[in-house]
Amino acid sequence: MNNAVRMILVLIIVGIFSGGVLVSVHNYANPLIADNEDKALKDAVYKVLPDAKNFRKITKNGITLYEGLNKRGEVVGYAFKAGGFGYQGEIEMIAAIDPDLKELKGMEVLGSSETPGLGAEITNEPFKKQFRGLSVLPEITFTKEKATGRNEIQAITGATISTRAVVRILNKEIGRIREAL
Fold first, then answer.
1. How far is CA 18 from CA 21, 26, 30, 32, in A?
2. How many structural domains is the chain composed of?
3. What local confidence, expressed as pLDDT, does residue 25 receive?
4. Is residue 40 assigned to a domain?
5. What is the C-alpha separation between 44 and 39, in angstroms, rounded?
6. pTM (2 decimals)?
7. Which residue, 48, 122, 133, 167, shows the most beta carbons closer than 10 Å to its own?
């Protein structure tokens, strides 16, 4: 057997072995990743719907909502995932709205690749706190000055694009939910 054939056989064996190892690792890790994502989602739902003691996943007109229920089984609000593009990439968040679809109960950023130190401020508590009790009628707006309206938040200094993106994403998703419900 010449050297070329031997090298090809060795490469085929190494390739088959490597592929098998990758498939095994994938099959092992996939359920763990799914479990962690489910746990993170549950934690986020309870964070934006603090009055909820339980929730159930519902789908209306193609929109997935997490209906938060109190101890008596009464609806305390709806949590929903929303996403879109910010300054540097996609922003993924979960937010909650009251049962009357008039007021936000909270917002959490699940994932973002915004500029560290500027746009990444959307993940900090002072920014997120502005969304608690925020009226969504009329649409949410933002200002660079001190927020004065019931539907207005104060933009992050130096990160107007990220602020605008969060507001746009929420308004779009809230509009879709209002149509679905």
1. 5, 12, 18, 22
2. 1
3. 92
4. no
5. 9
6. 0.78
7. 48
Print the domain residue range for 96: 47-180
In a domain, 5, yes or no: no
CA angle 156, 158, 160 (to 5 degrees): 60
Residue 11 lies in a domain: no
Length of the chain as a residue count: 181
Helix count and strand count (H, E) for the chain: 3, 7
Find out whether 138 and 165 touch, Cβ atoms under 8 Å: no
CB 98 within 8 A of CB 133: no
* Backbone dihedral angles phi then psi of residue 61, each to the nearest 5 degrees: 50, 40
pLDDT at 122: 85
In whole angstroms, give the CA distance from residue 87 to residue 161: 6
Strands 141-143 and 104-112: unpaired
Name residue 110's amino acid: L
